[in-house]
Design brief:
16 strands; D-Maltodextrin-Binding Protein, domain 2; 434 Repressor (Amino-terminal Domain); single chain; alpha/beta; 34% helix; 3 domains; five-stranded mixed sheet; nine-stranded mixed sheet
Length: 351
Amino acid sequence: MIMTKEDVPLKNHVKRFREGQGWSQQELADRAGLSRAGVSAIETGKLVPSTTAALALARVFDCQVEEIFQLDGDREIHWAWRPAKETCRYWITAINGRTILLPAEISPLGLVPHDGVYRDGKLLDNAYADPHKTLVMACCDPAVGLLASEYSRTTPFRLIVLYRSSRQALQLLQDGVVHVAGLHLAESCKPEINVSVAKEILSAPFRLLRVANWQAGLSLVSGLGMDTIAKVLAAGVRWIGREPGSGARQVQDQLLQGAPAPSIVSKDHAGVVETIRSGWASAGVSLQLVSEEGGLDFISVRKEAYDLCIPQSQIYDPRIRALVEVVRSISLRTMLRELPGYEVASTGEMT
């Protein structure tokens, strides 16, 4: 394959993709049909690859050419959604060759440092902002902070987490503005339901990575003396509701059996606990972990399969490969095992 030196300001991420696979320059050269010297010259920017060479590299990495090569200075910006205010902080990442800006929001990880500020129609990036080192996940896992901590500790990347219900997370994945979506719409004995729901929303092939099986059920103000769902329903206590599209809403609908849904709705598990602790409600659907950590009583309803949905096209992205390794790590499995209601027997399995 012929490669020529051209006066083209081309940025490339060949080295990053190669190291993400754990390959030497010679191994990459053999797979792509190039010379080792040619791979080295491309990585250092001394040679601009021919169209054939670029396509060969994209085939080897199982990605689009635009994910590896971009014209320097020619950055097309895509907002994940338009900012609600004229001035906002934002995070920046790269997905499928596109630069994505996400308006910063309250995260399960706390106040996450932003990559820049949008002000007066201008993007003011921080000097350290690197979209290729940022992985974005949408999920409602209350223990996602453990995953994010291990991810930043053991890899060169960082994890940004958007708190979304299962169907909302899948829609963001379909829109191409996150890398990974968490979902728990299936009982652990029927994990194929997660697959079928993902197929309803996603138009491209995907893989599911199991993080844990967890206990979902009814959180109750402590001291009520109710140890069964039947007693709770008969008592007519006030509920805090869950939003449509969430796994918790599935459990709520199952328990209420067609009765009107509560008028006040919480968007996350922690919100349920805080509403009950504040005295505005006595019961609501949440996870055993959040319920026990909040000092509430808990009645288990079902054990759910919590999976991460990953597009097949991104499975070899170094950030995704690092995520899979962290989920399968002994350190994360040990921490998850110690949480109330979490089981890790199938953690790390991919379908």
